[in-house]
Amino acid sequence: EGAINRIAAGEVVERPASAVKELVENALDAGASRIAVEIAEGGRALIRVTDDGHGIAAADLPLALSRHATSKLDGDDLLAIHSFGFRGEALPSLAAVGRLKITSRAAGSPEAAQIRAVAGRVEEVRPAALTRGTVVELRDLFFATPARLKFLKTERAETMAVTDTIRRLAMAAPEVAFTLSDGDRVLFRADPHGDPLDRLALVIGRDFRADALPLDAERDGFRLGGHAALPTYSRGNAAHQYLFVNGRPVRDRMLQGALRAGYADVLAGGRHPVAALFLRCDVRLVDVNVHPAKTEVRFREAGVVRGLIVSALRHALAQGGH
Ligand code: ADP
Ligand code: MG
Question: Hey, what domains does the chain have and what are their CATH numbers?
Answer without folding.
Answer: 2-190 (3.30.565.10), 197-320 (3.30.230.10)
